[in-house]
Amino acid sequence: MLPIERRQQLLKRLKEEGALSIAEISRRLQVSEMTVYRDIKPLLEERVIIKTSGGISLAPISKTSVNTCNYCLKELNSRHPVQIITNDLNVEQLCCPHCGLLRYKDIEKDVSQIICRDFLQNSTISAKMAYYLMDTDFNLNCCQPQVLTFESLKQAEQFQKGFGGVVMRFEEAIDEIQKRMNGAAGCSCEK
Question: Which N-terminal stretch is annotated as signal sequence (predicted)?
Fold first, then answer.
């Protein structure tokens, strides 16, 4: 197999599996680890892939455009963005809590911090400590199911009284969005 064919196979497997160790790539492609390092060198230089503690993974989409959501690729113009900071200090910008929670679940082991904005106060808060409100009658014309974030349970419940919805914590919100997306890869919103 030619190096270009191995790189194509490698990229296909990274898209399917997220990350691979050098040893696993070597085993699957039946080549030495040194050959794997030579094969991935151009991909690293072009920033198509990145090194991780366990091997390699695809580079975050944000390397290509700083004005688009890393998950759904919508233009970033939302007033309720989410940022994910990875262990290797890459910052991913996401248009809304919906995309932020789905992306977090995809790369959970690589996440150092996830932050969002309180919907009412517009202050930066830890997404893991936030309260999430889903199914409100308040439409922001962003990704569906729409998710609003609040630092305070009291404010989330007050907003809920006026606009409906269900209040959840971080893990519950992730589970609910994944369930509603029916396991589909990617975001169902329109770009």
Answer: none
